[in-house]
Amino acid sequence: MHLAYRVFLSLSGVLVFSMPVPETAAAETSRRAEAFAIAAGAAEAVPNLLSETVKHAAAPASAAVDVAMVRPDTLESDVVTEPTLRPRAWPKPPPPLKVAELPEAKAIVPPLTVMLMVIIGLVLFYAVRHYLFTLNRLFGTQRHPYLDIDIADWPTLTVLVAAHNEEAVIAGSLTCLLHADYPVDRLTIMPVNDRSCDRTREIIDDFVRQYPGRITPFHRTGGKPGKAAALKDASDAVASDIIVVFDADYLPPVGLLKQLVAPFFDPEVGATMGRVVPMNLGSNLLTRLLDLERSGGYQVDQQARMNLNLVPQYGGTVGGIRMRALRAAGGWHDDVLAEDTDLTYRLLLANWKTIYQNWSECYEEVPETWPVRVRQIMRWTKGHNQALYRHGWKMAVCRHHGLFEKIDGLALLGIYMMAPLMLFGWLLAILLFYAGGLPLFGEAVILFALMSYGTLGNFAAFFEIAAAVYLDGSRERIRLLPLNYFGFLVSMLTVSRAIVSQVAFDYLLRRELRWDKTTRYRQRS
Q1: What is the reported pLDDT for 21?
Q2: What is the pLDDT of residue 436?
């Protein structure tokens, strides 16, 4: 189709283009011309433009359509303005409403504040408790009432050595016990072989043949798994007045048995506990950190509770038990993971004393890898919380113990619950910060943050560890104390994970608790 252009300048300042277009396009062009002219600011030219456009729109298909454009220099005003075709600026949005100004945020501030105050109160309570223990250990009177007993009419004694797949370490433990300073005619060594599937039984039987009459083995081939179940079965075969329990990796010194048995000359004593010292502390950084924790827990925490007549804890190994007290307390419970904590409180509620002997040291292997350490903490956490569930209320309402003894007993039971509470406290502090609830609460939050560093470790506080290092006389170990903070974080997260697993899966699904054996690292000799 032939396309012709005709251009001329009209008196009104409108530039007109003329071109032949189809009929339908002509109408569309007229509408576009109107919109374009309005956008260009040619209000006066619009009526004339429309009239011209309408004429062409009514013309035949081959007619031309005139499109008018306004020249900028023909506008009435000489003021140069910004092009009106530029997009208009978006209006500024209203300022966002602060979280603290929301009604919902203001409503949650009071309950969150109360919960955080309760957690801070508990943290401060444990901090004061550890401070008192440390100061007592450094400056208070130390109680070692049975340390000087060396010559006596010693009672009959059975030493139980709990062993499950312990071929790497059982020989060392039996060798040390055979050289113990205790009357041979009153001593029975009974290794408790609990369903071992390695060479543990073979090694025990070799010792029986080499030392006839000295070792009475107890081989357990079936039954419920776990250390408590094995001790329960073995105790039925015990005929002595006193038993002393060791794990298979422990190496007792020569005079340890007499030191653990001496307190039983006091008829009120139901159990004794010695101090645990790692023998593989030089293996790596983890073992050195665990050595610091053990020092704080035994050198300061346990001895201070002994000094203050509070609640020393029977630790499940390196400890003695009076058989009459064990039977009076109900024997071993085979449905618990922490049979030591469970027995400590059953003896306490039955009015039997537990005596801690800080100078009665025995040597053990501590975990050398973090996965083994995590499993150990999870087992301790679940077992300790079982004791809290079973004995917490009984301890709170018992009438034959003093106020401070009951408070310490409850604090010892609740120690593992502080880890998830501290994590929850940090979360509450963050929520209160964004909810605007901390203007007058900032000092308390700062105090909470400081105390959270120095209050909880594994069995001991960080300042207890420093005091223990000082008391041990090996002060160079204090250089590792800052690194123990990472062990504290691992313990806190592991304990929280164990509690969630215990509540969500073990109790609700009624899943049976499983005993995880600690890995051994010593090479069999």
Answers
A1: 45
A2: 67
Residue 194 pairs in a beta bridge with: 220
Global pTM value: 0.76
Six-digit token pair at 131? 């401070």
Residue 66, phi then psi, degrees to nearest 5: -95, 125
Distance CA 435, CA 107 (A): 9
Contact 284, 396 (CB under 8 A): no
Closest alpha carbon to 243 in 165, 306, 316, 342: 316
Check: CB of residue 262 under 8 Å from CB of residue 372: no
Which pair of tokens denotes residue 497? 């994970």
pLDDT score of 444: 59
Q: Mapping DSSP to helix (H, G, I), strand (E, B) and coil, where does residue 259 land?
A: helix
Q: In this structure, is the dihedral angle defined by the CA atoms of residues 365, 366, 367 and 368, taken in order, positive or negative? A: negative
CB 244 within 8 A of CB 257: yes
Strand pairing report for 319-322 and 269-278 = antiparallel
Whether the CA torsion 331, 337, 343, 346 is positive or negative: it is: negative
User: Residue 251 has what DSSP assignment?
Assistant: B
Question: What are 90-127's pLDDT values in tens digits?
Answer: 666 666 545 445 566 567 778 888 888 888 888 888 88
- How far is residue 385 from each of residues 331, 378, 457, 515, measured CA to CA in Å? 20, 11, 17, 15
How far apart CA 385 and CA 416 sit, in angstroms, is: 7
Residue type, 95: P
Q: pLDDT below 70 — which residues of the chain? A: 1-106, 436-461, 513, 515, 523-525
Q: Is 16 left (phi over 0), alpha (psi -120 to 50) or beta?
A: beta
